[in-house]
Amino acid sequence: MKIGTIDLGERPVFLAPMEDVTDIAFRLMCKRFGADMVYTEFVSSDALIRSVNKTQQKLVVSDDERPVAIQLYGRDVDSMVEAARICADAHPDILDLNFGCPVKRVAGKGAGAGMLRNIPLMLEITRQVVQAVHIPVTVKTRLGWDAENKIIVSLAEALQDCGIAALTIHGRTRAQMYTGEADWTLIGEVRNNPRMHIPVIGNGDVTSPEICRERFDRYGVDGVMIGRAAIGRPWIFREVKHFLTTGEKLPAESFRWYLDILKTQVLQSVERLDERRGILHIRRHLAATPLFKGIPDFKPTRVAMLRAETVDELFRIMDGIEDRL
After folding, report:
1. Is 18 in a helix, a strand, or coil?
2. Catalytic-role residue among 30, 101, 162, 212
3. CA distances from 149 to 116, 143, 167 (A)
4. Could you tell me the CA-to-CA distances from 292 to 1, 120, 246, 260, 288 in Å, in that order?
5. 13 with 36: CB under 8 angstroms?
6. What are the CA-CA distances from residue 13 to residues 45, 48, 226 (Å)?
7. d(Cα 216, Cα 196) in Å, to the nearest integer?
8. Separation CA 224–CA 216 (nearest Å)
9. Cα–Cα distance between 154 and 206 in angstroms, integer?
């Protein structure tokens, strides 16, 4: 699979862009475990052209994580074009346009998945951004606004006509948010549309190596994107790539092996921010990780772990978990 001239190999697996999750440390971690391409957190076009420092920091990418995409969102042509040029100057490999974020503070203002209610504007933004930058432009969107407006098959063709280099589709409508099951049938319909000649990447509910391979085999997608299943489990890419290559499940490592990865994430988060903010940031990963699933009477330990305020306190609790096994 290629996006522009970027060769991603056969059956590539991507780390989805996620706000407050896909910072540079986590991207590098997922890259280490086999993610074929990674995406930044969402970058607001309005905040970027106002030179908001926190937003500008999201543009920092490392050569070690390439190929890497910066994902941009906004709601009007001029700001998206200006912001796209700023993003391109940060030298990512790809610029991705977010027309899929369903959260109210984004979609409710007409950006992200809100663009699904204004297709002419979505297409005009896409055309103008493609013309404004010298790197491949891709789009990530959803099936449609709601169950009565699943327009992705015709929309995919229209976006392709705007000059995008690849399309990622999340198998839900905006109205679904993240509820229910992702519907991949329309993703497959887009991929198998003979008029589509750009890569189509599927996203939604890929939580295991077996599901990932089934998505490739059944729907014919060019790539698969993993989002929430990677939170607290960056090693999922290692498991998926092994299964895709060999058809066999990767043998489990020791509990300490996985625990050390989570502890490394804690230290990286603290180093990037500071102790208080770093621990707050990493709590989402600790709460989501499957590593502690099934441990008897774990709730009090989980509460203590998520309330810890220092690295020493947090690591004492985490090390104590292993002692109970």
Report:
1. coil
2. 101
3. 9, 8, 19
4. 36, 47, 28, 13, 9
5. yes
6. 27, 29, 7
7. 17
8. 7
9. 25
Of 82, 89, 110, 88, nearest to 98 by C-alpha is: 110
pLDDT of amino acid 242: 97
pLDDT for the residue 212:
98
- Give the burial string for 109-141 (b: 16+ CB within 10 Å, else e): eebbbbbbeebebbbebbbebbebbebbbbbbb
* 87 belongs to the catalytic site: no
The number of helices, as runs of H, and strands, as runs of E, in the chain is: 14, 10
Helix locations, 60-134, DSSP H: 77-89, 104-107, 119-132
Strands (E), the chain: 2-3, 6-7, 13-15, 38-44, 68-73, 94-99, 137-142, 166-170, 200-203, 223-226
Cα–Cα distance measured from residue 209 to residue 212, given in angstroms and rounded to the nearest whole number: 5
Residue with tokens 């085999």: 217
Quote the distance between the C-alpha of residue 83 and its chain's center: 20
Count Cβ atoms within 10 A of the Cβ of residue 97 and give its class: 0-12 exposed, 13-18 middle, 19 or more buried: buried
3-state secondary structure of 14: strand
pLDDT tens digits, the chain, 325 residues: what are they?
999 999 999 999 999 999 999 999 999 999 999 999 999 999 999 999 998 888 999 999 999 999 999 999 999 999 999 999 999 999 999 999 999 999 998 998 999 999 999 999 999 999 999 999 999 999 999 999 999 999 999 999 999 999 999 999 999 999 999 998 999 999 999 999 999 999 999 999 999 999 999 999 999 999 999 999 999 999 999 999 999 999 999 999 999 999 999 999 999 999 999 999 999 999 999 999 999 998 988 999 999 999 999 999 999 999 999 877 6
Its CATH architecture, for the domain 2-246, is Alpha-Beta Barrel (3.20)
- Burial of residue 309 (number of CB atoms within 10 Å: 0-12, 13-18, 19+): exposed
